Amino acid sequence: MAEIGFLVVEIIYFIFGILTILKTMKNWKLNKNRMLLTVTVYISSILVRSIIDMGVYASGFDIDITVAGGLDIGMIMGFILFTIQLEFMFYLMDLPKLYTLPVIITTYLMMGRILVDSSIPFIIYAMITGYGSAFFLIKDGRKSRNGLAIGMGLFFLFWGLGSTFQIEILFVSLRLVAMIALFLGTKGFYEKYVFVNVEEEQKIMGTWIAKLVVKE
Amino acid sequence: MAEDLFLHGLENIGYLLNVIIIPLATVLVGRKLLKEKKATGKLNDIRAIIFFVFFSFSNLVILEFLIGTQFYDTTTRAFLASIFGGTLDVFNVYSFVIGIIASLGLMMVAVANRWDFLQYTSMFFFGGMILLYTFTGFQAFLAPYIYFAGGASIVFLYLTAFRVKDNGALALAIFFTLAFGTVIVDVAMITGFGVIIYNGVILIFSLGLFKPFKKEVMA
Questions:
Q1: What's the CA gap between A15 and A168, in Å, rounded?
Q2: Nearest CA in chain A to B107
Q3: What is the ipTM of this complex?
Q4: Closest to B124 (Cβ–Cβ): which among A104, A112, A121?
Q5: Most buried residue, A68, A139, A151, B45, by CB count within 10 Å?
């Protein structure tokens, strides 16, 4: 029964993912911003994982294939996603000297996973990547009033939280929250409703004070 | 008998030269680095890498010399020798320092060629290897990595030196050829002469007399 619940959440998550891709592709066609293209590639790779998960929930049994030691296909997918995420971060932060670091970290973590059956290094990596990216993107998004950056930041934050706990119900639910936050970012929700237009606010305040003065 | 005595003498001269000339070269290169930093306000990446190569090598030869001397009793010497090691297939002080030097060689190639994205790759790779060894005990890649990094450093340093006409890269290429040559070719006579020659090269370079390229493309 729980599997059906997870399947429903996963389908909603997948639909939001598709909507996000469509929106970013539409925006990319308009302004040719490479960041939008990167976001599209990233979300597409996430949705590949989602298709596997839907298959797992629909069939009712775990189809994860063990490659060697404690390393399975699901974990490899996770490593690839975190590598893309970290690469994306270094690209945004303009740190070309660190471009090879995520690939090297992933290689060693996968080797470590084969040699020692422990998921702690994976969780630590997920936490550092998720929270680090979230912190940077939310901070930068607030500064530059960029809703997409805020959306990406929230996406990494919720995704990171889900990966940290490693409890399926939390992981699946937080993934959905993450995707909705990103979808809202691409739709311009944060620019419209979260960022307050300082000039506009001052104008309103000015009028209000002026009215008070006239009344007195 | 006479040959043994000659080889033993050659080995001792090598030890002494190493322990005197390499730290001296490190100090000279370090002084130049600081002087340039004071004058320009910027750290010259290539000079900094050369300094760290010499600095690492200094530590290695000083430790090798201290362990090789008769200051300690047999048990202490055996203990120190076990930590220091002397082979490249297991992690020990010797293989660790040689690994750092080989990685710095690759780093210098990336810096000289302005391959920004590869600048720290060798260091990341070696650092990862150390961490993997710390947590899992896995060290099978150590020797192949050192041989590969050493070999690639030599080839690329020569290519870089002639391409960008860089005296530092050429000096390091010659030094690496002789130093790695003495590590790989384990023939007492060749090792003995190799050590003396690379000490000569290092001394000439650190004194600023090694200038085969009169007009350097880059500093």
A1: 20
A2: A97
A3: 0.77
A4: A104
A5: A151
Give SS3 for A122: helix
Phi, psi of A197 (to 5 degrees): -75, 110
Residues of chain A with pLDDT under 50: 216
Q: Does B113 touch chain A (CB under 8 A)?
A: no
| Token pair recorded at residue A214 | 């006239």
What 8-state DSSP symbol labels residue A173? Answer: H
pLDDT tens readout for residues A71-96:
777 778 778 878 888 887 887 777 88
Q: Is the pLDDT of residue B127 over 90?
A: yes
How many whole angstroms from its chain centre is CA B21? Answer: 13
How far apart CA B47 and CA B40 sit, in angstroms, is 13
Q: Do B132 and A104 touch (CB under 8 A)?
A: no
Please count the residue pairs, one from chain A and one from chain B, whose beta carbons lie less than 8 angstroms apart: 37
* Per-residue DSSP letter, A195: S
CA angle B34, B40, B45 (to 5 degrees): 60
Q: Which residues of B touch A100 (CB under 8 A)?
A: 117-118, 120-121, 124
The rounded mean pLDDT for chain B is: 82
Judging contacts by C-beta atoms under 8 Å, the chain B residues touching residue A121 are 135
Residue of A71, A87, A111, A128 to mutate, interface with B, max B Cβ within 10 Å: A111
Taking the CA of residue B119 and the nearest CA in chain A, the distance in Å comes to: 6
- The residues, any chain, with a CB within 8 Å of residue A194's CB and separated by 6 or more, are A147, A150
Q: Is A168 helix (H, G, I), strand (E, B) or coil?
A: helix
Confidence of residue B129 (pLDDT cuts 50, 70, 90): very high
Tell me which residues of chain A, numbers 51 to 80, contact chain B at a CB-CB cutoff of 8 Å. none
In A49-175, which ranges are E strands? 66-68, 71-72
Residues 6+ apart with CB under 8 A from A174: A158, A159, A161, A162
Instruction: Please indicate whether, in this complex, the C-beta atoms of B116 and A97 are within 8 angstroms of each other.
Output: yes
Q: Which of A98, A104, A116 sits opposite B128 (nearest CB)?
A: A104
What distance in Å separates the CA atoms of residue A31 and residue A39, rounded to the nearest whole number? 14
- Taking the Cβ of residue B190 and every Cβ of chain A, the question of whether any pair is shorter than 8 Å is answered with no
- pLDDT, one tens digit per residue, over B80-126 is 777 777 777 788 888 889 899 989 988 988 888 888 888 899 999 99
Using DSSP, state whether A68 is helix, strand or coil: strand
Q: How many CB atoms lie within 10 A of CB A95?
A: 13
Q: pLDDT, tens digit, for every residue of B173-219?
A: 888 888 877 777 767 777 778 888 888 888 888 787 778 876 655 54
Residue B131 contacts A where some CB pair is shorter than 8 Å: yes
Q: Is A112 close to B119, i.e. CB distance below 8 A?
A: no
